[in-house]
Write a structure and sequence with these properties.
The chain is an all-alpha fold and 116 residues long. It has helices at residues 2-24, 26-34, 37-50, 53-67, 71-84, 87-111. It is flat.
Length: 116
Amino acid sequence: MTYTLLKLFLSAGVIVAVTEIAKRNNALASVIHSLPLTSLLAFIWLYSETKDAALIGRHAYGTFWFVLPTLPMFLLMPWLVKKLGGFWPALGAGILMTVALYFLTMALLKKAGISL
């Protein structure tokens, strides 16, 4: 239970740190936010619990393919905020677009014979 709480607080701490830093220095927060901290923490937690390097390799490979459909949301969010009149509509549209791109990615990977 203590280990789970450690994972929870360290992982949540990254999010809190980014939001607090963004209030003072958006460029620095953007750089930190762009780092694959969630993935790195997940790799560390998963490896420390399983000691299975091959699992980490498979997980990293799958993560690569599913990062790609998330990128358009980051690129389009500034435009969506202006076009749709605010944060929440833009976020909703970005999420819907990302989900659609996830499904497209899965279909294309299957068609290409790539198994995750």
